[in-house]
Amino acid sequence: xxxxxxxxxxxxxxxxxxxxxxxxxxxxxxxxxxxxxxxxxxxxxxxxxxxxxxxxxxxxxxxxxxxxxxxxxxxxxxxxxxxxxxxxxxxxxxxxxxxxxxxxxxxxxxxxxxxxxxxxxxxxxxxxxxxxxxxxxxxxxxxxxxxxxxxxxxxxxxxxxxxxxxxxxxxxxxxxxxxxxxxxxxxxxxxxxxxxxxxxxxxxxxxxxxxxxxxxxxxxxxxxxxxxxxxxxxxxxxxxxxxxxxxxxxxxxxxxxxxxxxxxxxxxxxxxxxxxxxxxx
Length: 281
Known about the structure:
Blueprint (H helix, E strand, L loop, with lengths): L2 E9 L2 E6 L7 H8 L10 E6 L6 E6 L10 H13 L10 E3 L2 E10 L2 E8 L19 E8 L2 E9 L3 E6 L8 H9 L9 E9 L2 E8 L3 E3 L3 H13 L6 E6 L2 E7 L6 E5 L2 E9 L4
Parallel strand pairs: 2-3, 4-5, 10-11, 12-14
Antiparallel strand pairs: 1-2, 1-17, 3-4, 5-6, 6-7, 7-16, 8-9, 9-10, 11-12, 12-13, 14-15, 15-16
């Protein structure tokens, strides 16, 4: 039986299986198998490391349902940490081709090991058509979205992938598991959307839970933390530099007034390595 070597990594509990397998034709089917929590390795996503003609390397990511999102903030930190420590790049700042464009990670080292990764996530996209989201008027700030007869105020942002941000008084009591999937598949979002529930602790601290498109509730979402920071700043709830508290730790997010880019800084850790059969038994 042919087996595929993999590395399991996580960024604040948002976990991924990373592979170097450019010859596989059906990554979507592989993602559904390898990400399964009972019959596979178990992960929030499959990350494929590939060569690129536009950047130093290329990253593709697949959700557990086989869908392919444009970007993943926690995933790209894992990707950047792995390719550096595996010797695939020698630079501490390099470029990665994604469906959301060219992304630039910067590695923060302690000795020769990666302690954290700062990622230039680019400019947030605020035009309705760029999110994408149906309807009229941009930016989408505090727009009423009716969900099963209840009105919610959503602020929507694209960080290369779509996000709908709701602000709540108590994030621990937020109906993530019920409202999240309903909004993910809401007709307003032709490509579905990620859904963030945010409690503002103070102008420099946010607390977040997230329902990820194609994955369900996860422990962390890097692009979601970026989108939440932009939404909080747009609505006057926070400053442009904040700490986002997630279930397993914190991300530092800055929406720079100098270049309008969003910068995300956080950890990435290896869990284990192994081999996975390419064919089902």
